[in-house]
Amino acid sequence: MLQALRDKTSGWIAVVIVAILAIPFAFFGMEQYLFQNSASYAAKVEAPPSWWRSAPDVWPVRKAVWVSREVSPEEFRNEFEFARQRARAAQGEAFDARAFEQMDNKLAVLDQLVDRAVLGLAAESAGVAVGDDQVREVLQAMPEFQVEGRFDPQRYQMLLQSRVPVQTPRQHQDDLRARLQMLVLPSRVAATAFVSEGQLARTMELLGQQRDVSVAMLPAPAADTGAVSAAEIQAWYDAHRAEYRAPEQVSIEYVEITADAVPAAQPADEATLRARYEQEKARFVEPAQRLVSHILVRAPEGGDAGARDAAKARADAIAAKVRAPGADFAAIAREESDDEGSKAAGGDLGWIEGGIMGESFDQAVASVEPGVPSEPVLTDFGWHVLLVREVREGREVGFEEARAELAAAQAVTDGERAFNDLIGRLVDQVYRNPSSLAPAAREAGLPVQKAGPFVRGGGEGIAANEQVQRAAFSEALVQDGTVSDPIELAPNHSVLIRVTAHEPERERPLADVRDEVVAAIRADRAAKAVLAEADAAVAEVAGGKPLAEVAAAKGWMHMPMPGTPRGMPMPSAEANEAIFAAPVPAEGKVSAGRVLQADGSVVVYAVEKVIPGDAAAASAEERAMLKTQLERMAGDEDAMAMMRALRQRMRVTTVEARL
């Protein structure tokens, strides 16, 4: 038998079977074997090339011809840090640094980077490019870089230096260019959205709709004082057990560590300050600046020689005009310049330093003699006639001049280092004595304080802090009784906690909640009684009886409300919403209904007539505003649909281990 098996596995049939099995392994298994472990990205987006959009998603084809864009771990960390800074600024002391590190937040940030990569590949495939002129216009319009409504180069440099990580102007402009490139497609798709005149008219008719309605007000029911039997109490309790549970609660002890717990640092010595000065020397260099005005003559990109020559001739004429005796450069700039950003200001660009306006522009400005209008100079933006009005030479701030600033910065650094060292020593004590706060308290010379018992969302002081509560109710601290990791409440303000007592959520016995159950039964009986009365009235009105007559018989307040507009909070916002949700009444009929309000009262209504809004009565401004709003909504949805479609056509791979 064994010999027969050996014969069958060594013949041509076995060779064919092995060959068939080798093909899928070569196409799919080898990809995993060769490339999965060597990947260095946090996410990778792959797409078919523009010249073969139907290229199949199989390994050899994808590796050979598909284009890709990767999100590096560094790029993810930078974006995640920006997100952290935004969250801290928005939430203030409520910011939970540890909770922000959760994988859900990381994946959300990564998903945004993936969307950018998808849009970037789509833009490249569509041949989208963003020029220097557009980057400059957007940059100078960004409000964070403006002072008194004007772009300020010094503020621009300062804000870039304060970012984490620090960005150079070139890096920031490249990043801005990439973002603009990604926005071109969705913005163009959104711009194609339109609203037909029929849609606009129908929307205006709905928004301007009025209804003739009459309402009757049933007051909140009087308190029910009737007897409640033991059987009713037991039945209610059994049906609503979840409502009669005592919430989970904990008690904690804690050590609060602030900057006050750290002795004031000694002033830094000369050697330390000089070493810091050398490390940060670039920060104490003031670059050369020039106060520049210009007149721009745009040279059409891709234009023919005639158009380029015409632009040059116009620039020559303007240069001659401004160089004439007594010429007013600012007035001529307001009349002639093609730069809408500076034209109204007489061509004033403010103080310019290298690296902000682009290399070609910087070189042109550096070559101009101060106080003398230049001959036309060609840059990436077009032809410029430049006027350098003033020059500030660059200089290096010396050590002595920077000493005070260095000492202040070093004091902050030393204070933070001392605080972190103290936290480190406390953590060491916790590791040695994980079930007691006393050693850590002795190390810091701080008292062990107590708080609780408190429930989720309750407590006072430290116990009310969201981060403290998250830790106090965590399974690890509750079950183990160990000391927490340091919980950062604010810079140089942390706390260590330990759960000393825990009482889980539990069912409260009927004997303890009997009075609450009786009150709930009586409130339910009263509410059902008033709703039953309202339902009977609705049935009478629907049967043809006027609501005014029904209300008079019951002694209810009745109020006719002809021409009630949509959204009017009368008799209440809930009632208005119900009135406009009621069906249009048939000829000679009414649409009746009732609404239970928050205070226990009930509104019974009868819609008698529906009056459509008059679209023709709207002003041109109102029509234009509504049309813009509807088109923006439709455009946003179109852009989102495009984004979803693009992602479906591409292959996205994420590596959570690198986040």
Backbone CA Rg = 37 Å
Query: Which strand order spans the largest sheet, edge to edge or round the barrel?
Result: 18-5-20-19
* Large-scale geometry: extended
Largest sheet: 4 strands, antiparallel
Give unreliable regions as ranges: 1-6, 14-19, 21-37
Strand segment tally? 21
Subcellular location: Cell inner membrane
Family: Belongs to the PpiD chaperone family.
Organism: Luteimonas colneyensis
Main location: membrane
Walkthrough of the structure:
- With 659 residues, the protein is α+β, with helices and mostly antiparallel strands.
- The chain contains 24 helices and 21 strands.
- The strands form seven sheets. A four-stranded antiparallel sheet has the order 18-5-20-19.
- Helix 7 crosses helix 9 and helix 17 (399-432) runs antiparallel to helix 18 (438-444).
- Mean pLDDT is 84; it is low at 1-6, 14-19 and 21-37.
Brief summary of the model shown:
Its main location: membrane. This protein is of the alpha+beta class and 659 residues long.
Features:
isomerase, rotamase, 18% strand, 4-stranded antiparallel beta sheet, PPIase_PpiC, Periplasmic chaperone PpiD, Trigger_fact/SurA_dom_sf, disordered N terminus, 659 residues, 21 strands
Topology, please?
Blueprint: H1 2-8, H2 12-35, E1 43-47, H3 59-65, E2 67-71, H4 73-91, H5 97-100, H6 103-125, H7 132-141, E3 146-147, E4 150-151, H8 153-162, H9 169-191, H10 197-207, E5 210-218, H11 230-239, E6 245-246, E7 249-258, H12 270-279, E8 285-286, E9 289-297, H13 305-323, H14 329-336, H15 340-343, E10 348-352, H16 359-366, E11 377-379, E12 382-392, E13 395-396, H17 399-432, H18 438-444, E14 449-455, H19 466-472, H20 475-480, E15 487-490, E16 493-503, E17 506-507, H21 510-542, H22 547-554, E18 557-565, H23 573-581, E19 591-596, E20 602-611, H24 620-649, E21 651-654
